[in-house]
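Data availability (excerpt). The following record was deposited with the supplementary files.
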Amino acid sequence: MPWENILFAFALTLFAGLATGVGSAMAFFAKKFDPRFLAVSLGFSAGVMIYVSLVEIFVKARGNLMSAHGERLGSWITVVAFFGGIALIALIDKLVPSFENPHELREVGDAPADATQKKALLRMGLFSALAIGIHNFPEGLATFIGGLQDPTLGISIAVAIAIHNIPEGIAVSVPVYYATGSRKRAFGLSFLSGLSEPVGAIIGYFLLRAFIGETMFGIVFALVAGIMVYISLDELLPTAEKYGEHHLAIYGLVAGMAVMAVSLLLFL
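Predicted structure:
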């Protein structure tokens, strides 16, 4: 594999992972928390992830697996891997307590009233960073593999995951900031949580490079499609509806799908 391809794929993964820092910065420098804006943003992120997963990534996975194993067996492997990705991320969510789960976003305006609440909030932020690191590990591998196999697909995955990582940055930085009063510490922890994506890419590549081929690409893509659909339906859309009106979430969802659709067409 040429080093240029590897460096390109790694750069995409780094871009996606460090988007958590964007969410942290947005939380700190916004003059006033706007739940309607957050609702639209989360809906937009869900639209991007659902569209790219089902229209681009799943189709790419099926094409690779059909090429390697024939139409019937390749299609079966694709579907099993897709639902396997859903089962994997659901299991991770189940093992992470809801209080520390980054998929359980708090109201950004909530501030602790006393030292006990501050301590609990700091613990929440630290565990959220750890949980996000666990969630981002397979996402980093997926972005990296996508960039290696098909630069256009890699860019699509990176953009979708980067948008998704923005609210995760908020989930880490806001509780740490309210607990410590330190923007620098909160931003740094949020930034570090995003580094698990390039770390996952590096470790995954060295573990799997002997198996790189159409079968591995297809299975990884199908797994990621399942993971991204689950995150959208379990995390992004419910949270969007919690923070805003139902129609705002749907408008954001449709807008996200439309933007991703156009972006994919531009790469044809």
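Summary of structural features: The chain is about 85% helix and 0% strand.
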